[in-house]
């Protein structure tokens, strides 16, 4: 029976990626190995997040516990785990993490062709109250691993090979795109494996939810203010949209992918480039949105066409359902 097949035929991430790679005979399994190291990092963070209260992992970096050991804040710990897992995979050459001011250039003896940009634990202000947080990543590939410069990662998001996130929520969910659609996997803790639970995610063409930090409204520009006003007081006879804002990008984007609608972190007078980081927040989420049939826009252009000039650059971002983003684009086009 169909139902039985679902229960006994477990599509793990590794199996899924191997299937995808088999369509590229030239591939030597390097991507599968790289991804398994990212997945390992996510499993570690998932278990650490679940134990955060218990293990007293929460605390300021540099504080010492009763044994006199240094306590690391969860985001610092997560970063170390990802950096070590990625370096030891032997498949990476440059790493860019939100936690590290400088990019990491992998020692030539361990170098591979992939660059990974990531935010190891995004939304960390939500840790202490148990709200969902996540890891976000994007992957580029270099031509010549023996000759790499920072320019390899200062590239438009459309050059990414793959992107994804892992959400540490009521369950642990891994969402991935390697450029041919988006798939979601849920961690089965008893197996320690992510099993495909959300094949071929497509975002609804139009949604009923908007998601934004409205506390910044007094500093918004005209088109953003007009759009949010429209969400609340539609003039075309449609129902107002619902507001949902978690304040964890991974959770807000995950809901947007599944239910549709828009997530925005616009520019405002205080932060003319918004808050979110181009390389490891805006790009991976924009990549996933487009792969799921939605759009990602900066207020000026397609988000994936941005070219960052520094690794920690920020950009305003509007992402979500195709039709909803069209409305935002029209408001920005009318404003110039
Ligand atoms: P962080 O990288 O310092 O955790 O900040 C990123 C987070 C995102 O997850 C979220 O979308 C945004 O900050 C929320 O910002 P705000 O609190 O300004 O609404
Ligand atoms: Mg972040």
From TrEMBL:
Name the PROSITE patterns on file: FBPASE
Give the Enzyme Commission number: 3.1.3.11
GO MF terms, alphabetically ordered? fructose 1,6-bisphosphate 1-phosphatase activity; metal ion binding
Tell me where on the tree of life, at the top rank, the source sits: Eukaryota
Residue ranges constituting the Fructose-1-6-bisphosphatase class 1 C-terminal domain according to the UniProt record: 203-332
Keyword Repeat among UniProt keywords: no
- UniProt GO BP: fructose 1,6-bisphosphate metabolic process; fructose 6-phosphate metabolic process; fructose metabolic process; gluconeogenesis; sucrose biosynthetic process
Alphabetical UniProt keywords = Carbohydrate metabolism, Cytoplasm, Hydrolase, Magnesium, Metal-binding
Cellular localization per UniProt? Cytoplasm
Provide the reaction this enzyme catalyses: beta-D-fructose 1,6-bisphosphate + H2O = beta-D-fructose 6-phosphate + phosphate
**What InterPro entries does the entry give?**
FBPase_C_dom, FBPase_class-1, FBPase_N, FBPtase, Fructose_bisphosphatase_AS
Q: Which Gene3D superfamilies match?
A: 3.40.190.80, Fructose-1,6-Bisphosphatase, subunit A, domain 1 (3.30.540.10)
Instruction: Name what cofactor the protein needs.
Output: Mg(2+)
| Ranges of residues in domain Fructose-1-6-bisphosphatase class I N-terminal | 11-199
Record's Gene Ontology CC terms? Answer: cytosol
Q: What class of enzyme is it?
A: hydrolase
What HAMAP family does UniProt report for this protein, alphabetically?
FBPase_class1
Family, similarity comment: Belongs to the FBPase class 1 family.
- In Swiss-Prot or TrEMBL terms, this protein is called Fructose-1,6-bisphosphatase, cytosolic
Q: Which organism is this protein's natural source?
A: Acorus calamus
Its organism's taxonomic lineage begins at: Eukaryota, Viridiplantae, Streptophyta, Embryophyta, Tracheophyta
Q: Which gene encodes it?
A: FBPban1
């Amino acid at each position: 029976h169909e139902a039985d097949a679902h229960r006994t035929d477990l599509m793990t991430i590794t199996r899924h990626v191997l299937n995808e790679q088999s369509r590229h005979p030239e591939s030597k399994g390097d991507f599968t190995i790289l991804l398994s190291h990212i997945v390992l990092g996510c499993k570690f963070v998932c278990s650490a997040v679940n134990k955060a209260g218990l293990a007293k992992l929460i605390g300021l970096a540099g504080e010492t516990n009763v044994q006199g050991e240094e306590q690391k804040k969860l985001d610092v710990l997560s970063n170390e785990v990802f950096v070590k897992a990625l370096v030891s995979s032997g498949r990476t050459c440059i790493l860019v993490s939100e936690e590290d001011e400088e990019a990491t250039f992998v020692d030539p003896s361990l170098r591979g062709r992939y660059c990974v940009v990531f935010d190891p634990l995004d939304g960390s202000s939500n840790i202490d109250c148990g709200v969902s947080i996540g890891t976000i990543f994007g992957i580029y590939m270099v031509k010549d691993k023996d000759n790499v410069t920072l320019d390899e990662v200062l590239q438009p998001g459309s050059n990414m090979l793959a992107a994804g996130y892992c959400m540490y929520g009521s369950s642990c969910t891994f969402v991935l795109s390697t450029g041919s659609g988006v798939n979601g996997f849920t961690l089965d803790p008893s197996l320690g494996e992510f099993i495909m639970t959300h094949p071929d995610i497509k975002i609804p063409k139009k949604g009923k939810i908007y998601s934004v930090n409205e506390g910044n409204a007094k500093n918004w520009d005209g088109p953003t203010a007009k759009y949010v006003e429209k969400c609340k007081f539609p003039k075309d006879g449609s129902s107002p949209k619902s507001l949902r804002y978690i304040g964890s990008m991974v959770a807000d984007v995950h809901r947007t992918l599944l239910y549709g609608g828009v997530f925005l972190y616009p520019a405002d007078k205080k932060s003319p480039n918004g808050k979110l980081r181009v390389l490891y927040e805006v790009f991976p989420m924009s990549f996933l949105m487009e792969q799921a049939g939605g759009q990602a826009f900066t207020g000026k252009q397609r988000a994936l066409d941005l070219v960052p000039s520094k690794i920690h650059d920020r950009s305003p971002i509007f992402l979500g359902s195709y039709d909803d983003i069209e409305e935002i684009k029209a408001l920005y086009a009318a404003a110039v």
